[in-house]
Amino acid sequence: xxxxxxLIGRLTRDPELxxxxxxxxxxxxxxxxxxxxxNAQGEREADFINIVVWRQLGENCANxxxxxxLAAVDGRLQIRSYDAKDGTKRIVAExxxxxxxxxxxxxxxxxxxxNRSMPQNSTxxxxxxxxxxxxxxxxxxxx
Length: 143
Hints:
Blueprint: E1 5-11, E2 16-19, E3 25-38, E4 44-54, H1 55-64, E5 70-83, E6 89-102
Parallel strand pairs: 4-6
Antiparallel strand pairs: 1-3, 1-5, 2-3, 3-4, 5-6
């Protein structure tokens, strides 16, 4: 079976970095991804996709990405549900990132110098395969 998502888009807000009670870093942000077609008014629309990034890669995203930056995300789609405070059941679709590429230069300017201003090791895939959330309890997941 295959569950693979590859996206390129711009962050709609700065990444939010949190830690589980056991000290595992987790960052979250929303990526605006343009659609390949225009609507009836001739405008291009975008999808707003929630991204979750764990461990060191999450810390790197929080340190080097910010609102408006271009990023490529490679990961898997996860659908989960939870009970909201008002008692209703909510369903959330999000991408659990396994690799994130920083495509904008650090200083925010676009252009040929982009690669020179990238942080060293701008991607850090989770090498130990521990992105499986089954080892974490519901209390440890901070969202």
